[in-house]
From TrEMBL:
Keywords: Leucine-rich repeat, Phosphoprotein, Prenyltransferase, Repeat, Transferase. Catalyzes the transfer of a geranyl-geranyl moiety from geranyl-geranyl pyrophosphate to cysteines occuring in specific C-terminal amino acid sequences. Catalyzes the transfer of a geranylgeranyl moiety from geranylgeranyl diphosphate to both cysteines of Rab proteins with the C-terminal sequence -XXCC, -XCXC and -CCXX, such as RAB1A, RAB3A, RAB5A and RAB7A. InterPro entries: Leu-rich_rpt (IPR001611), LRR_dom_sf (IPR032675), Prenyl_trans_a (IPR002088), RabGGT_asu_insert-dom_sf (IPR036254), RabGGT_asu_insert-domain (IPR009087). Gene3D superfamilies: Protein prenylyltransferase, Rab geranylgeranyltransferase alpha-subunit, insert domain, Ribonuclease Inhibitor. Residues 245-346 form the Rab geranylgeranyltransferase alpha subunit insert-domain domain. It comes from Sciurus vulgaris. GO terms for cellular component: Rab-protein geranylgeranyltransferase complex. This is Geranylgeranyl transferase type-2 subunit alpha. It comes from the Eukaryota.
């Protein structure tokens, strides 16, 4: 055994590492204490830079020490010559690069580099772009580096076309680069701005078709990578809808005007003002939301004075002007009529999807067929299944409705952890289809029974509905947005799992409410119904609260205006 190196046992190795860690900790703590003492004493000199560099070189995430270094540089700016400062900054940039090699995702290091370059009279932005390229070669998804690159590109006024070419090079090297795809979605609208498309504007058709071809190559190369699928979903998306007044409704009985908009707004805010003209004269009114909450809403209403509803005149004209949205709508209330309205057609304005040209429709149809072929090869690829659904929605939601539902079933089986999300998305699409069908039929009755709905959305589109059937679904609540249905007279919601009635509030025309076989536990859950003045029939059969003793007496006291309560 003589002459051979003694191998330490595992216990000896552990003890040696412990002693080494303790020694490093002592040095770390003593250096930190020295920095804080100097800072407290106002001794912000180069010795603080030396002390903090010892700590930050090993742990770049000590944010307080970066603050100390900035304070030192601010102090030295008043004491050093420009040449001396330039040398310090050059050394600092080198130190920062060494810190980034220790931790390329250090918030403090990237932020300090931004701060430092912001104080230089002539930063070398080209060098910074090269730095970003080097670090992105190591980790192409380092979002800290991507943020820094966007900062540098903005400061250096790098043309978007050059940055787009940079993303091309990274995507060509590796399709699985979410950050590059995302950056493209930011750059392309800058390169190809479209008038009246809003901040989320989409692309000219020729550019869009090229991008669709590029991303299709990506997800066919690696079907299991999500990056390209997400980008494809962005390409299929719509631009922000133009600001518009969708519907205007006037009720003589309620002496009320209700208006719905293309997006939620907060009336009364500095940028959101509504002007009401009655018979071409301005009328000052107080606007409120249907549920009485002062928050952004698609639907707003106001009370009308009796004079504006005088039935002696042949008609009254009401016009709402949305100043911020540069939009308006007008409706007429005729003599002898109890209500009047004017609304956009959901079918005319492509409410839930973009209008497709022949060329784009052909490309999307081809993509749909290609995705179906890919799905046959990759039957459990959830991204492919979801994209098939979205392509069908983009092409023709009503034509593909039945097939879409079948793909939802397959997708839920493939991705059971997201079953709840998929159920909600399916419910959203079904409700959109129902709104379109209702528009085609020009009726005010909407049947949504037996559709397995889990959520209600787009309720602002149902402003004129008088009869709504939600029976035999999986709804757990009737949401506050339901208060927008100002014309609703009959609501059927039997055989759900409803526990809350927050949305049944201030419905002026509601007469019948059917809630059989739900999960209403306490009479207090019905308190909001007292705000519905015309409610006369309430059916609660099959709810747990019906098991309580004296429930009818309790409900009669809670809802004295309801003449018929079935339990």
């Amino acid at each position: 055994m003589h002459g051979r190196l003694k191998v330490k046992t595992s216990e000896e190795q552990a003890e040696a590492k412990r002693l080494e860690r303790e020694q490093k900790l002592k040095l770390y703590q003593s250096a930190t204490q020295a920095v804080f003492q100097k800072r407290q004493a106002g001794e912000l000199d180069e010795s603080v830079l030396e002390l903090t560099s010892q700590i930050l070189g090993a742990n770049p995430d000590f944010a307080t020490l970066w603050n100390c270094r900035r304070e030192v540089f601010q102090q030295l700016e008043t004491q050093k010559s420009p040449e001396e400062l330039a040398a310090l900054v050059k050394a600092e940039l080198g130190f920062l690069e060494s810190c980034l090699r220790v931790n390329p995702k250090s918030y403090g290091t990237w932020h300090h580099r931004c701060w430092l370059l912001g104080r230089l009279p002539e930063p070398n932005w080209a060098r910074e772009l090269e730095l970003c390229a080097r670090f992105l070669e190591v980790d192409e998804r380092n979002f800290h580096c991507w943020d820094y690159r966007r900062f540098v590109a903005a400061q250096a006024a790098v043309p978007p076309a050059e940055e787009l070419a940079f993303t091309d090079s990274l995507i060509t090297r590796n399709f699985s680069n979410y950050s590059s795809w995302h950056y493209r979605s930011c750059l392309l609208p800058q390169l190809h701005p479209q008038p009246d498309s809003g901040p989320q504007g989409r692309l000219p058709e020729d550019v869009l078709l090229k991008e669709l071809e590029l991303v299709q190559n990506a997800f066919f190369t690696d079907p299991n990578d999500q990056s390209a699928w997400f980008y494809h979903r962005w390409l299929l998306g719509r631009a922000d809808p133009q600001d518009a007044v969708h519907c205007l409704h006037v009720s003589r009985d309620e002496a009320c005007l209700t208006v719905s908009f293309s997006r939620p707004l907060l009336v009364g805010a500095s940028t959101e003002t509504l002007l009401l003209m009655v018979d071409e004269s301005p009328l000052i009114v107080e606007w409120r939301t249907p549920d009485g909450r002062n928050r952004p809403s698609h639907v707003w209403l106001c009370d009308l004075p009796t004079a504006s509803l005088n039935d002696q005149l042949p008609q009254h004209t009401f016009r709402v002007i949305w100043t911020a949205g540069d939009a308006q709508k007008e409706c007429v209330l005729l003599k002898g009529h109890q209500e009047g309205w004017c609304r956009d057609s959901a079918t005319d304005e492509q409410l839930f999807r973009c209008e497709l040209s022949v060329e784009k429709s052909t490309v999307l149809q081809s993509e749909l067929e290609s995705c179906k072929e890919l799905q046959e090869l990759e039957p459990e690829n959830k991204w492919c299944l979801l994209t098939i659904i979205l392509l069908m929605r983009a092409l023709d939601p009503l034509l593909y409705e039945k097939e879409t539902l079948q793909y939802f079933q397959t997708l839920k089986a493939v991705d059971p952890m997201r079953a709840a999300y998929l159920d909600d998305l399916r419910s959203k699409f079904l409700l959109e289809n129902s709104v379109l069908k209702m528009e085609y039929a020009e009726v005010r009755v909407l049947h949504l029974a037996h559709k397995d709905l889990t959520v209600l959305c787009h309720l602002e589109q149902l402003l004129l509905v008088t009869h709504l059937d939600l029976s035999h679904n999986r709804l757990r609540a009737l949401p506050p947005a339901l208060a927008a249905l100002r014309c609703l007279e009959v609501l059927q919601a039997n055989d759900n799992a409803i526990e809350s009635l927050d949305g049944i509030t201030n419905l002026p025309r509601l007469q019948e409410l059917l809630l059989c076989n739900n999960r209403l536990q306490q009479p207090a859950a019905l308190q909001s119904l007292a705000s519905c003045p015309r409610l006369v029939l309430l059916n609660l059969q099959g709810n747990p609260l019906c098991q309580e003793g004296n429930i009818l007496e309790h409900l009669a006291e809670l809802l004295p205006s309801v003449s018929s309560i079935l339990t």
